[in-house]
Design goal:
Elements lengths: L5 H18 L8 H22 L4 H22 L4 H28 L1 H4 L3 H19 L2 H4 L10 H23 L8 H74 L3 H15 L10 H16 L3 E6 L9 H20 L8 E9 L2 E9 L6 E2 L2 E2 L11 H12 L3 E7 L2 E9 L5
Parallel strand pairs: 1-2
Antiparallel strand pairs: 2-3, 3-7, 4-5, 6-7
Helix pairs in contact: 1-2, 1-4, 1-6, 2-3, 3-4, 4-6, 4-8, 4-9, 8-9, 9-10, 9-11, 9-12, 11-12, 12-13
Length: 430
């Protein structure tokens, strides 16, 4: 068993506490305070126990750092809503920063004799070094690296980050076990610069991953927009065709009815008239694009036992591009239809749409009943579909389009009702 020195205790405690710096901007698990206290306390106790039990030596130190990485990963997983690769990624950052600080500490001990001796001054200096660097990280890298309170990290990104921290560990071990004088000489400076370079590369890697994810999301939303535009044109053509056919059928029915009063023929004509009545239910709101959309959705809802209620001022939507309008309300109504389609109780299959103006703002609300609890991430509900790579873009597409008009969206669940509210400023009159 090895002895635990005071600097080692400080290193263990501050390394575990560093996880809190990187967890601060992420989405927490509830109850976060209870989870964090328990996880951090258990992590410190476990790390100190391992440090005390494992003997000294380069091989044992490598094993100890691997254990630290596993402990930090567990802390992250217990406290925040991240996938396992992302948890490992955050743990890598915590461990890499901690090892870099220890390398800095070696240099400070060589440069300043007061820190070379074990004492209160040396311990206070080490603690202050950790605190200063962690504060800098809190307001810089740790705050800016996550996107929407989360990390979009897969196995490839996780492995590359592990390789980076492996390099940092090797460089740190070279300082500890390379022998010789570790004062501020060229060898030490080269190693320290190499470690800093690795941290910089790790940060740049994170930013590149984030940029790549944004580009992928943009391309996906652009594809969805193109599909919405094509769907809008196709729907408009289909509804126009249906209306022409229905118009002809109504005239044919009227002509047949005037030929005679035969009861059988009258019954047949009534049935025929009722069968085509649904296709003549053209919605009139004052906005052509919205009329096309609502007619399409009304036909679908009628066929699937869903009641859709609309209170719409179509003229207030005139400033919106027809394709944008179709994308916004098409996605919103599709989400609502999907949300109520699975209800066994048909009385719950209700969708309410309201479009109105208030105080120079256009307000659009879509609501529907919902069962169970929804998890939210970045202000939007997390999709429950297994294929998460291609689903969940509907609301993001809505938010993106609404932002183009200077508006914003709000999603909430109250008293068993899912509510999507969009607020868009009206253009100023010339």
């Amino acid at each position: 068993m090895g002895e635990i020195s005071a600097p080692e205790v400080i290193e263990v405690v501050f390394t575990v506490l560093a996880a809190g710096v990187f967890l601060r901007p992420l989405h927490k698990k509830e109850p976060f305070l209870r989870r964090s206290v328990g996880a951090f306390g258990l992590a410190v106790a476990t790390a100190l126990a391992l440090t005390w039990v494992l003997p000294e030596g380069m091989g044992w130190d490598i094993l100890l750092q691997c254990c630290y990485l596993a402990i930090l990963t567990g802390v992250v997983f217990a406290c925040v809503r991240l996938r396992r690769p992302a948890c490992v990624y955050v743990a890598v950052w915590v461990l890499a920063v901690s090892r870099f600080i220890m390398s800095l500490w070696i240099g400070l001990r060589g440069a300043f004799p007061i820190f070379a001796e074990s004492g209160v001054a040396a311990l206070a200096g080490l603690a202050a070094l950790y605190a200063v660097i962690y504060l800098l990280l809190m307001f810089t890298a740790a705050r800016t690296m996550p996107k929407g309170g989360s990390y979009d990290i897969g196995p490839r990104q996780m492995i590359s980050a592990l390789l980076m921290v492996l390099i940092i560990e090797c460089l740190t071990f070279a300082l500890f076990y390379g022998g010789g004088n570790f004062h501020l000489n060229m060898y030490y400076i080269a190693v320290l610069l190499a470690e800093f370079y690795c941290l910089t590369m790790l940060y740049m890697q994170t930013e590149l991953f984030k940029k790549s994810a944004l580009e992928k999301e943009f391309l996906t939303m652009n594809l969805l927009w193109q599909q919405q535009r094509d769907q809008y044109q196709l729907t408009r053509e289909n509804i126009d065709l249906i209306n022409r056919k229905c118009h002809d059928l109504k005239h044919q029915v009227q002509a047949l009815r005037m030929m005679g009063n035969d009861d059988v023929r009258e019954k047949y004509l009534k049935e025929l008239e009722q069968s085509v009545q649904i296709y003549d239910a053209m919605v009139k709101t004052g906005n052509e694009a919205l009329d096309t959309l609502l007619t399409e959705k009304s036909l679908y809802c009628e066929a699937h036992g869903i009641k859709i209620s609309c209170v719409v001022d179509g003229k207030s939507l005139a400033f919106l591009d027809p394709v944008d309008l179709y994308a916004i309300l098409g996605n919103a109504l599709d989400n609502a239809v999907e949300g109520v389609s699975g209800f066994s109780d048909k009385t719950k299959r209700l969708i309410d749409l309201a479009v109105y103006t208030r105080n120079q703002f256009l307000v659009i609300t879509v609501s529907n009943p919902v069962e169970g609890e929804l998890q939210f991430l970045g202000g939007l509900p997390v999709t429950t579909k297994k294929d998460k790579g291609y689903h969940g873009f509907g609301l993001r597409s809505i938010r993106h389009t609404v932002k183009q008009y200077g508006g914003h969206i709000n999603v909430s669940v109250e008293h068993g009702t899912f509510l999507l509210k969009m607020i868009i400023p009206l253009p100023k009159q010339a």
